[in-house]
Exostosin-1c
Amino acid sequence: MQARKKYVLLGLCACCWLVLFYWGGGVQLRLLRLLTRHRGEVVRPWPNWTDRAFLPRYAHLDELQTDPGTAESPRQRRQAWSAIYKDSRCRMETCFDFTRCRRRGREGFRVYIYPSEKNDRVSESYRKILTSIGESRYYTSDPREACLFVLGIDTLDRDQLSGQFVPNVDERIRGYPLWNDGRNHLIFNLYSGTWPNYTEDLGFNIGQAILAKASLNTEHFRPGFDVSIPLFSKDHPQKGGERGWLVRNTIPPRRKYLLMFKGKRYLTGIGSDTRNALHHIHNGKDIVSLTTCRHGKDWEKHKDARCDHDNLEYERFDYQELLHNSTFCLVPRGRRLGSFRFLESLQAACIPVLLSNGWELPFSDVIQWNQAVIEGDERLLLQVPSTVRAVGNERVLALRQRTQMLWEAYFSSVDKIVLTTLEIIKDRVFSHISRNKYMWNSLPGGLLVLPEYSTHLAHFPFYYLGLGVSPGQEFTAVIHAVSPLVSQSQPIMKLLQVVSKSKYCSQIIILWNSEKPPPSRSKWPPMPVPLTVTDGRRKTTSRFLPHVAIETEAVLSLDEDTVLLTSEVNFAFLVWRSFPERIVGYPPRSHFWDPLKRAWGYTSKWTNDYSIVLTGAAFYHRYYHYLFSHYLPQSLRTLVDRTSNCEDILMNFLVSAVTHLPPIKVAQRKQYKELPSPQGTKSVPWANPEHFNQRQECVNTFANWFGYMPLVHSQFRLDPVLFKDQVSVLRKKYKDLEKA
């Protein structure tokens, strides 16, 4: 009985608790509704630009109102997107045919461009994209070899009100026999949608094609499949591009203005909410935020009470002056999520502060943007000034340095934007041999790190310092031989003896490029290190082939007539171990700009200034052999082989483009003189009067391909301790270097 009473009592308590909760909660809710109705307010989970209680802190309501009917709910946007992109769930595993790419290993990654039809209109920007692909090492003119297909139809501007809009794309691409619902196709786009909503409608069904698009929304971005690219103007350079504006690490790193923006203010339509509120953070001192209504044909019809004042204030400041002198640059969304100001800020080393909710940043698959930009929230504009003020000087300097690295590695030209897109896709196709995030986000950038060579950081010379790794303690000598062996007194015989005596020499490889067959092993002198004779196939560029026999990190490149001492070799090798990413050697040359001819010149005069160290006697890392053979275009290597000239200049161009640093000259015993060739041997190249003219032309040809002049001048020379000091020679380690 006692137990039954206890259970009954517990049941009654539970019922009472439920009744109280139901009626009490209902009363509270009714009271809350009465109070809010009395005040004319509505409870919302997050402040909205149309909240009257929230807006007085920012602007008047009539300043921020947009056209009625232009706003879309998230569900409506998703439904519109699904109608446009029916394969919105595409991934590489489901919408890409890997078998087309893996027929020849990584060499099978080839890109085919559909031929343009006779009356096709192609914009300047799209022509640059197609040129970049056509001149890349991945291009093929045979569609049977292709892994990836690119349309010849210009798809960059899909705004139906634009003069660049190309109609009937859907009908045309469906007629392509290789279209296959877009599988293995790559489509480039910069502008989508049209007034007033600027949706991401391209006006045709992309099917299973990969979309390389600017202003991509994170809701519509297909991770691991699409590629977000930056919005760039038609004036963006094809190659090279201008260097970043951070010339040196200025301390303190802050500039005259803390934060700046100067641009259009949209009075109505999408994007107007953010732009209309920017004037609230302007203080005219260290924060300059300027907008103008004066754009478009009928701006005066929509002007408000603030337009005249804004236009006057807008004209007081020069945009370029603000860019050069601001620490942070505000990058708000425009009509679309992307903005030209993003690339302008990166180049200017002005840290971008993004106000574009939902923007999938360019190359987000590989770039760690938190190391270069500050991402804000459009709804919390007034918090931006306090946020950037809280960033310390060390962080500011690190952010500015990263903007420069990213600008020069991936964004300074159309070539780099297109090649980065292709390399990202290639890494997805061959994911087992691909770059890691460190390679993409550190110098020299992912485009100059070829994973076919290695995927280990410690195998690349430019990562040694960051990893705390030292290069190996041995080198391989590669001697370029072009003269037949007719005498035991030829310079190459003495050179073999000198090099083999070095305690750092691991092996010697003779690259035989003579017209006559190489002599037998008995004709060569005995040496303490292995000697290998390799057929150079009478090609000048063969001296820079990635020979399998080279097992050491360091390579000593030598001409057959080079005159050196063993102590010179040892000293240069020790210097190289301190600078493994550079060329270290003896004979210097230089380049200069000729303003009269408006061309680059080449000089062999002996001065204190140099930008080239000839590879006839120089150390460098073996990775540059691989880069020379697989990164540079076939056209440049063909030029070198045809003229039997300029391979040393081209290698200097390549290494300086990677490092942005000059080579290093070391002390030498005497200047190399151009002596006549011994009887029976091949004449020296400089005996030909055309030799020097060819080198002048090579400098300009190479500069045109790179898009800029990568060579860097230097007056830096490294000598041994006590070199030519008036002290006893017994105290000098390299005393032989001072002998005439």
